[in-house]
UniProtKB/TrEMBL annotation:
Its EC number is 2.3.1.-. GO terms for molecular function: acyltransferase activity. The chain crosses the membrane at residues 18-39, 51-69, 90-108, 120-147, 154-173, 179-199, 211-229, 241-258, 265-286, 298-320. Keywords: Acyltransferase, Cell membrane, Membrane, Transferase, Transmembrane, Transmembrane helix. It is found in: Cell membrane. The lineage of its organism: Bacteria, Pseudomonadati, Pseudomonadota, Gammaproteobacteria, Pseudomonadales. This is Acyltransferase. Pfam families: Acyl_transf_3. Residues 11-316 form the Acyltransferase domain. It is a multi-pass membrane protein. Belongs to the acyltransferase 3 family. It comes from Pseudomonas benzopyrenica. InterPro entries: Acyl_transf_3_dom (IPR002656).
Amino acid sequence: MTKTTPEKDLRIETIRGLALFLMVAGHVIGSSSTLGMKVPDDSVLRYLYDSLVYVRMPLFTAISGYVYALRPVNTGSDLSRFYQGKFKRIGIPLLVVSTLFFALQMAVPNTNYKPQLTDIFSIYFFSYAHFWFLQSIFCIFVVIALLEKAGLLLTLRNFGLVFAVALAASFAWESFPDLFSLYKAVQLFPFFLLGLGLYRFGAQLITQRNVVTMAVALVILVAMDQAYLFELVDLDETDMAIIGTALGLAAISLLIARRFYFKPLAWLGYFSFEIYLFHVFGTAGARIVLNKLQVHDTWVVFTVSMVMGLFLPVALKLVLERISPLHFLSVAFFGAKTRVNRATPPLQKKATA
């Protein structure tokens, strides 16, 4: 398997675009009948949400691990420099954009959640809206850098031991605190490791035999999950945690092992960070405006919200890159200096194996 850089491997950008699409769709629908579009529990959209819950954010996390593995920390790396870079890239947008979102939730009528001003400081330290993922992924980077610095992920054997410990810990996520969304970081850490491992040890892990085994396992696990959703079997939370985790690991492994190139999704993947940060401004804004206009058709609201959630952040990014006086906002919002020559994704390059 030829290893490539993120700019050249547009198939990985395609999978990242797919993860973005699923993530935005999940937030449009809402995790319950009181959030997002507030769709009822017996609706098609709720069924789709529940069917993909074990893949959506785990896939997003696994892609982060895969891309990290392209330029990893090593035993000679300066950890302070690595952490400073991650704070600029993740921490600054977390502080700025979460504050902006908090202010808009307070000011805009008809939002699903109306925070109090006294809650403002808690959003920087505990789970808040979708920003919990930024806290969690930062925690993951802190731990992964320490493991890399100690050389504990350099061999498949050591990687397997670390993965086994992370997997066991993920089933005890409730024992970990909400501070910096640590408990969610523990849940997602095995998937980050999965992405890292599939890149670093792809020759050993991505074999024809393993792919067939994963495909068979996935079919069985999906069948069990569907049987649970249709109340054909009685499974408790522990059973579903095991089934769901295994389902996510198998599905993601297959997606990365047999990744494909699809230009629209690869284009979205290029703007993954921007879309993740700002998609809720488009999805919630579209839903509120449509409701004000007395448009309540489920599929119209879903479609318009998806379009706004995916493309409003892209438009914002491109505008800020092209207007020089606004470049400082791009740094504050996206945590990186703008480069005009990066405004258009390099999709003219050939997708490589």
